[in-house]
Structure formats: C-alpha cells, structure tokens
Amino acid sequence: MDKNFNYSNLKLGIIGGGQLGKIMSQKAKKMGFHVTILDPTFNCPAAQVSDKHIIGDFHDSKKLEQLVQESDVTTFELEHVDTTVLKELYDNGHNIHPSPYVIELIQNKYEQKKLLDKKGIPIPAYKNVKKDEDLSAFGFPVIQKVKLGGYDGKGVQILRIEADLDKALPTESFIEELVDIDKELAIIVARNIEGEIKCYPVVEMLFDERINICDIVLAPANISKEIEKKSIEIAIASVKALEGVGIFGVELFLTSQGEILVNEIAPRPHNSGHYTVEACATSQFEQMIRAVTNLPLGSTKLISPAVMINVLGEEGYEGEPFIHGIHDTLEIPELSFHFYGKTFTKPFRKMGHITVLDDDINKALEKAMKAKDILKIKGSKKI
Question: Which CATH homologous superfamily contains domain 181-382?
C-alpha cells in the first residue's frame, strides 16, 4: 500500500473476533474503514461491531483465504491460526501484517526463545525437552512450557521438586529456569510498514496466582529511570529482531538482581495495553490499525496514570452473564467499564475490564481495588 491509497474505501480483515478484535473494529470504524472479521463463534464480541462476519475456524484454509481476498489489509487478534495458506497469500502480494512468518515463529515459544537468544536479547536460561531426563537438566524448581498453544497461564507447569515430574505436561515442551522475579513488566511496541517504531510506557503486571492470569496493570510502572530506559531498549531490540509490523506486547521480568529478561512476545494488542484506550493519546488498538495500513504511528503520550483491572467470570458460576454492582462501580470517579459482550461466562473467563485514571497512581489503584470488590460477573447457573 502506498500513500496514495484511497483510505475512504479501505477494507480491513481481522482474524479473530474476541475482545481484542472488538476494540480494534471499533477503532477502525471510527476511522471509516470497512471491517470483516473471521471467527467460529456466532455473535462473538467483534461481530457485534463489525461490518461482516465470516463464520469459520482459524484453521479453515478456505475461509482464511476468503477473508484475505476480500480485504485490502488483514491482521490478527490472536496468533493461534493456520499459517500455511496465509504464507502463500502473503508471498503472492497480499497485505497481511504481522506477516504469517512472524506469526508462525511466535506461535512456537521455543523457536521464539531461540531467535531472541540468537539476536542477543537477554532471556531466562532454557533447554529443549527431547526426553524425560531433560526436564531435570536445571534441577528444581524449574518451569516447563509447551511449545505450541499456550496462553493466559495455560501450558505452563512449575515443577518444584523431583516428585512433580509426574505432573509434567505430556506434549512438546521446553524448560526454563525459575527466575527470582522482583516485578513483571510489559511494554507495547508499535512498528509500522516503513519501520517507524514507537513505545508505550513501561507498565507493571500483577497476576492472579490461582490461574497465573494477568489481573492488574499499573501504568506507569514504579521503577527507576535506569530500569525504564533499559526495558525500552530491550523491547525495541526484540521487535526489531522479529522484523514485525503491528503491535507487540513484550513481557519482561525484572529480577531481584536488577536484570531485565524477555519472557515472551505477543504479536497483537495485549492485555497490558488496555489502559491506553483512556490513558494515552493513541490507544494500542488504533495504533495497530495505523501500523498495518501504512499510516503514521500516533503519539504514545501517557495523558494520566492509570490502573487496569481484568473483570473475570466469578468462580462457581457459568452460563448467561449477569453484571452485579455496575451502578455503584460507575459512581467511582474517572472509571471506565468495558464489557466485552461475551454471551457465556465461566470461572476466570475474561469478560471485561475496568480502567481508572488519577494523577496519583496509588489513588487510582485504591479506586480500582474498590471497583474490583464491587463489580462481579456471575452466570445464570451455579456450578
């Protein structure tokens, strides 16, 4: 796409129709673009706000080809897709960003680690698991990770003692040293077709230890200028190593020794960047669209400190979702509530998020925690 393209007619295709695709669609519609999404679920979140919904699986080559053929630009809200036909279409000149080759590399967390290691990016020590004995190569405790298909804490197993080998994941995997973590950080990095790069603020992620899912994001992170600078340099180097186009969520470990290590990279809008919708001059979702359609990247200026909290389905409930406490929650100043429109809730499913702004990050956190106590998503059926 050159700069003379008629953007008033731009057709954007999004592979995936979850909450990330929904907010991407909303931002694309604000810019006047026609949006088609591909997702197997009828009335999925993105289908509720897009122009067209192709109902199909992410491994259905015919439906993937249909989406690409009908779109000027195709992008992703998830990486777990069949890249075979997408690579053929990309090689034949179709605009698919990030490229299917980048998606394929990132799909395999072991191959992702190998590339970062080769490019000199600091990462935790890791080793391929070819036989059972490899699981104990670093001693204990150690982390086992699946190569393919892991997300939101799934596909990760901590083996604390030798007896835990019985709980090892029975699939292709690798092991990683258990890092002594002081903070888990993240940076959203944008890179457009012309190679322009912009970084969002470094944020801190807090996790729900029951399911190892990101629960709270604090923007900006409470870190020194030195750690901030080092984190940004490493995140930019990581995205340059991928030569990717789009938005990349770079997850980092700040060790107790002050080291910065890359955990993994997501080639799409990331949970740690949801706060950008209210708190930054350009949201990560609009930035993704700018990057893949060869538009200049927007300002990543942080307008206000912010705290984002995931709203998860309550334990003990499933079925049609009911929002409890919305009136009291929305009385909290500078609070925004996003409900994703999923028609079925279950324990710990991401159903929405809350973002709270305040000039004082500690006050924003206080307000956000109050909202977390009030707002609950329960299902129509107790389990």
Answer: ATP-grasp fold, B domain (3.30.470.20)
